[in-house]
């Protein structure tokens, strides 16, 4: 419980609003916000000639906004909801002020918004948009213990590992599998100290 501080929860709540704003901006950028009469995922796919592989992402965006009340879902159709979506730039500034290390998440979400049309037209894959060589600096900043949104994973992992290490210490080996930035191993070593 002590890992889930007010600071973490506040940043996480702000980030959730930013994800909603991102989803809304993406749908708006591809003219896929539902009209008052509602729309199905299949209708949107057909109306905008969205490649079938992209319907999973399209459906995710609709469901995400419906879960937040920004859209409503009824009888297989999505409609405008009653909750007002937050302004992306306003929430991004709030996140940067609240937790500067988490501001990298805004850069990643902005990349998604900026490339939504290319993605939904089938001109670029998600991997090409998010993991191209020019995006590497984003991921180095994201997979960092300075980013509280990601660091919680390392903190939980280090806590779990600390409960498995013998009380009298001893030799252990750590193999970090993931982004390759070393933040998980760094957190483990900080948690376990020099006794290992």
Please explain how this structure is put together.
- The protein has 196 residues and is mainly alpha-helical.
- The protein is 56% helix and 4% strand.
- The chain has helices spanning 6-29, 41-47, 55-67, 88-98, 104-114, 116-120, 126-131, 136-142, 148-162, 183-192, and strands at residues 71-74, 77-80.
- The chain has a two-stranded antiparallel ribbon.
- The longest helix has 24 residues, at 6-29.
- The radius of gyration is 20 Å and the shape is elongated.
- The protein starts with 5 loop residues before the first helix and ends with a helix.
- Give the helix/strand class: mainly alpha
Q: Please, what is the average pLDDT?
A: 92
Number of strands: 2
* Helix and strand run: HHHEEHHHHHHH
Give me the number of helical elements. Answer: 10
Low-confidence stretches: none
Distance between the termini: 25 Å
* Radius of gyration using CA atoms only: 20 Å
From the spread of the alpha carbons, the general shape counts as elongated
Main sheet strand line-up: 1-2
What fraction, in percent, of the residue positions are helical? 55-70%
